[in-house]
Amino acid sequence: MQREWPYIDSAWLMVRKGFSFAARVVSWLVVLNCLGSTVYAQIASTDLPGPLIPFSNRKAAEIVLKGRDQLRVLVEKDLILDGLNYPRVCAWVSPEGYKQLEVEGWSISWLPPEAEPAPIGIPKGSLAFPLEAYPTYDQIGALLEEYALNYSSLCRVESIGSSAEGRNLWVIRITDHPEIEEDEPECKLISTIHGNETLGTVVMLDLVHELLTEYENDLRIRHLVDETEIWILPLMNPDGYSHTPRTRFNYNGYDLNRNFPDRVEDPANTTAGRQPETSAVMEFTRDHSFVLSANFHTGSQVVNYPYDSSAYWNTWKHPDWYTPDQDVFVQNSLAYSTHNPLLYSSGQFPQGISNGLEWYQINGGMQDWNYVWNRCMEVTIELSNLFSPPASQLVSHWEANRESLLSYLEQSRIGIRGIIRNSQNGKPIPASVEVSGREGLVHTDPQVGDYHRLLLPGTYTLQIQAQGFYPLTVHGVAVQSGTASRVDVDLDPAYSGWLIY
Asked: How many helices (H) and strands (E) would you count in the chain?
């Protein structure tokens, strides 16, 4: 049965990503009074027109709805809806927007500012792993540089760009031969696109430490590093992270997770007009052939997979809500949640996973952009109901996520893989691979010619094409559980004057 407005049904309340009311339990006493005991996560809204003032001048307000139909009107306004427990809505509103809502007759009142939780900064001389404090931006950079110096055979560190306020976006590449490209799947992990959601940064740094320091001692980690190219961006929004108090927004007042191209509202896959952090991640992604990805948030406890956006968002479980790779996304999500008791048993989401649109609708999110335009299978992982858990809980959060992270990265080695070459000279060529019955192309790495297509067990047909070469169809490719079947292909050049696409 279709639901015309499922998100305000009592069983399916939709709230904005990264802003669960559970995260307010410690810091917003007023919210406890107005919400009661039920916790929800995230309501959708449109992107902000911004920029406004540095880090945005929006503040948290409570709006009391007079009827459920008002929510449909509210999501079109210039605000960010933050949570709903009908009839009360919390939203980020500018002073001008607040006045306009008052003039229009909305019942609205300001909420007190969110209390700053754990301080940022590791005391001098007390660095230990797993981390027991939130590092500063400068400490993160220094730590990554130290790894690059001490583990030069396993990693490289570089900046993929600068934030709006001029801070570097540091990434670390971890693999057994970081100086060259190899025939192996590329994965990326990105955290803290919202500057006030800090736990993921610590977990990413703990993972970096684990992969590098345990490479010689742990056979599983050694195999993962030897067979995978892992890129980690621990801090995508360094300006919001470094601001006092920490903030969701970047320096220009944008929500970066509403700033990517969107298949419904913003289908122009270009960096033009986007924020510097967004543009940097887009260019970084385009420069690689990422197979698997995750971005880390806090404010809830769930693994969320595409799609987040659909033109049919108000038709409950419309087919357009689900990607052609729904089965793979579910398995990848479970590979993470199953090993994390905080997520798997959170109560709100069965098995700790959710399709994005079954949770809420957003436009301009990073995970949909990765899949729609790059066929990179990215999920959004919400690690904690608290934005920045107390420092005393950081070690336990790492312990809860270690196995999940390793298990998730290992999903990059399932399905079908191979190298596509020119049959005349054996050189790799840029080509595309499509699985019959599954819309969307994966592309080879131009330097090595390797491709990696994540698939569950079954039998598949591949369509392989390259400009200037005859296309080729490969039938009956069998995929077994837990491994990737190899299909190497030599394409014949087309006759002179022919271009085969």
From this structure: 13, 22
